[in-house]
UniProtKB/TrEMBL annotation:
InterPro entries in the cross-refs: Carbohydrate_kinase_pred_CS, CARKD, Nnr, Ribokinase-like, YjeF_N_dom, YjeF_N_dom_sf
Family: In the N-terminal section; belongs to the NnrE/AIBP family. In the C-terminal section; belongs to the NnrD/CARKD family.
Binding site for (6S)-NADPHX: 98-102, 168-174, 204, 321, 371, 436, 507
Record: residues binding K(+): N99, D164, S207
Protein name, UniProt field: Bifunctional NAD(P)H-hydrate repair enzyme
GO molecular function: ADP-dependent NAD(P)H-hydrate dehydratase activity; ATP binding; kinase activity; metal ion binding; NAD(P)HX epimerase activity
SUPFAM superfamilies, per the entry: Ribokinase-like, YjeF N-terminal domain-like
The entry's keywords: ATP-binding, Isomerase, Kinase, Lyase, Metal-binding, Multifunctional enzyme, NAD, NADP, Nucleotide-binding, Potassium, Transferase
One of the GO BP terms on file: nicotinamide nucleotide metabolic process
Length: 574
């Protein structure tokens, strides 16, 4: 589990360590410099290999990037050989606070390793000791006020690497001038330059992101890599800011395992902090967490104890959604999958997945709505072939309304697509709504909020939380980074390649989550925070299945479902 610490938590963790004389900034700067040296060496090796000079094995050894944006790495930075980096040019963008201090000290290490380093001071003030150290070793210093923005942009363009050390966790709001103007110009230049841009490293955070909420309130220079200190910050894992952080790498400077825990004054460690039991943290599940959550069958289990998933999906116009949702559920390991819908669709489901039972009966979790048209009360709309009626019936077993009709008590549900327009009663947290940004905006408009898709995309966490509070349900907001907000912790998962944004991928996710909820149905009803964890687990499995099915290329939704068994086996370590 990766957990992100708010700027306040970071500050509180730093205080006792600083009081105890722990050299936090020295550790941060050293770790940062090692990453920069490693990456500069790797890029040079790549360039030489392209020119035909270096053997492939050495190249592979020095690259080793996981390549997924927003993915953190644990491996300590590899020391780069002197010859790999000598003569490379670095530009430091230096702000007035400790973030600039980290950057100047790191710059001093780079000078000592033979790089030509220029620090551009964006403010009249700069970290005094850091600046003195940088000058002492021979770093070049210029000020933004003297150089002006166009000259700085040119200097950056001509460099091998640029370090964004304008502001860190001490920043509030959009970057102000003159740093804001500089970053806007650099961001424009980067967008126009394509590949011809220096490797861009953000120091602690990309300057200008919302540290605690992941917002992008103003200009930000997109980083290839963010080297963050002590702990992840929410803005590095939450959309949209996660999208400008590049690969996130943590440098351990000696923070305790959880916020508020006793400080460690001993040497650094390389591990992610454990989850804090306190509610409302921003977390990201990893494979080991999913393995713990997974309902693995034992010798005493049979199909009914393992969980029956009921799927109400598809119509004659959209039969594929039914095939995809049932396939997702079957291949995730449901004890049984029941399909409820028009006969013509049921026939197609059976052709694709003969394991599905096309008949009603008791279920432990519902999947409602994929491929079912939106309900428009003012209009007869497209013929839903009885699906709305079936969904209303199933929802009664979720909300407990009309509970005399519900045999066997309340059960969890995945509420997707068309079913999102059929919510009449307050929902329990074990109902998981799975909208994309457009669907969430529509749901929120129905609740009286004046939002559109772009507004949701600008503040996904805020709107997911708002929808949770308004409906009671757990909200799984789909996107490149998927956010899950329920009554406890928030989860943010970035496990899938962009190829996953293809029609039907969401239907498969609904099926995967349905099986997980059915497998732990009674617990999810009892523990109001479990559905969100299971939802995040489903997103991780779906994303990894998409990665496997894609293998770097296009992916079809059904292939995501087909990749699920191997991904689950891998996660469970079998
Ligand atoms: N406290 C410590 O000893 C450590 C701090 N560390 C670094 O220090 C950073 C935090 O340092 P600070 O608290 O000094 O703050 P920052 O360096 O993040 O930035 C605060 C400075 O930026 C200015 N500022 C704030 N908002 C701005 C905006 N919107 N536009 C333009 N300028 C703005 C403020 O006037 C202030 O001078 C961390 O991100 C990390 O990089 C690390 O070195 C670890 C140890
Ligand atoms: N850029 C992207 N990167 C990674 N995953 C994405 C991206 N865009 C969309 N996805 C994922 O693809 C799926 C699309 O689901 P959805 O929008 O419901 O499509 P459909 O309704 O056609 O199945 C979701 O799981 C979403 O998180
Ligand atoms: K920064």
């Amino acid at each position: 589990m990766k957990d992100a610490w708010s700027s306040d938590e970071v500050r509180k963790a730093e205080e006792p360590l600083i009081a105890a004389g722990v050299p936090l900034m020295a550790r941060a700067a050293y770790g940062l410099a090692q990453v920069v040296l490693r990456e500069v060496a790797a890029r040079r090796a790549r360039t030489r290999a392209r020119a035909g000079g270096v053997d492939g094995a050495r190249l592979r050894g020095s690259l080793g990037s996981d390549g997924l944006p927003g993915t953190a790495r644990r491996r300590p930075p590899r020391a780069a050989g002197r010859g790999d980096v000598r003569g490379a040019r670095a530009v430091l963008l230096v702000g007035p606070g400790n973030n600039g201090g980290d950057t100047l000290y790191a710059g001093a290490h780079l000078v000592q390793r033979g790089l030509t380093v220029t620090a551009v001071l964006a403010s009249a003030r700069a970290h005094e000791a850091g600046l003195a150290r940088f000058r002492e070793v021979g770093g070049q210093v210029a000020s933004l006020a003297d150089l002006r923005v166009p000259a700085v942009v040119e200097a950056v363009r001509g460099a091998d690497v640029v370090l964004d050390g304008l502001v860190g966790v001490g920043a509030r709001g959009a970057l102000r001038p003159p740093a804001g103007g500089l970053v806007r110009a650099l961001a424009d230049a980067r967008a126009a330059a394509g590949d011809q841009w220096p490797y861009t490293v953000a120091v602690d955070i990309p300057s200008g992101i919302g540290v605690d909420d992941g917002a992008l309130p103003g200009p930000v220079l997109r980083a290839d890599r963010t080297v963050t200190f002590g702990a992840l910050k929410p803005g590095l894992v939450l959309p949209p800011a996660a999208g400008v952080a590049g690969a996130v790498e943590l440098v351990d400077i000696g923070f305790p395992a959880t916020p508020g825990a006793a400080p460690r004054t001993a040497g650094p460690r390389h591990a992610w902090g454990a989850a804090d039991p306190a509610a409302g943290r921003v977390l990201r599940l990893e494979a080991a967490d999913v393995a713990e959550l997974w309902p693995v069958p034992g010798p005493g289990d049979h199909k009914y104890t393992r969980g029956v998933v009921g799927v109400v999906a598809g119509t004659g116009t959209y039969p594929g959604a039914a095939v995809l949702a049932t396939s997702g559920a079957v291949l995730t390991g449901a004890g049984m999958v029941r399909y409820l819908g028009p006969e013509s669709v049921g026939t197609r489901v059976l052709l694709a997945r003969p394991e599905v039972v096309v008949a009603g009966g008791r279920v432990q979790a519902w999947v409602l709505g994929p491929g079912v048209p939106v309900l428009d009360p003012d209009d007869d709309g497209p013929d839903d072939e009885g699906q709305a009626r079936r969904i209303f019936g199933a929802l009664a077993a979720v909300t407990g309304v009309l509970s005399e009709d519900v045999t066997g008590g309340r059960v969890p549900a995945v509420v997707d697509a068309g079913a999102l327009t059929m919510l009449e009663h307050r929902l329990p947290a074990f109902a998981v709504l799975t909208p994309h940004a457009g669907e969430l905006a529509e749901l929120l408009r129905g609740l009286g909020h004046d939002v559109d898709r772009a507004a949701v995309e600008a503040r996904p966490l805020h709107w997911a939380r708002t929808a949770h509070q308004a409906t009671g349900a757990t909200i799984l907001l789909k996107g490149a980074v998927t956010v899950v907000a329920g009554p406890g912790d928030v989860y943010t998962q970035a496990d899938a390649p962009a190829w996953t944004g293809t029609a039907g991928a969401g239907d498969v996710l609904a099926g995967i989550l349905g099986t997980l909820l059915a497998g732990r149905s009674a617990e999810a009803v009892r523990d109001e925070t479990l559905a969100a964890r299971l939802a995040a687990a489903a997103v991780l499995v779906h994303g990894r299945a998409a990665t496997r099915a894609s293998a770097g290329g296009p992916v079809a939704a059904l292939e995501i479902a087909r990749a699920v068994p191997a991904v689950v086996a891998e996660i469970l370590g079998r």
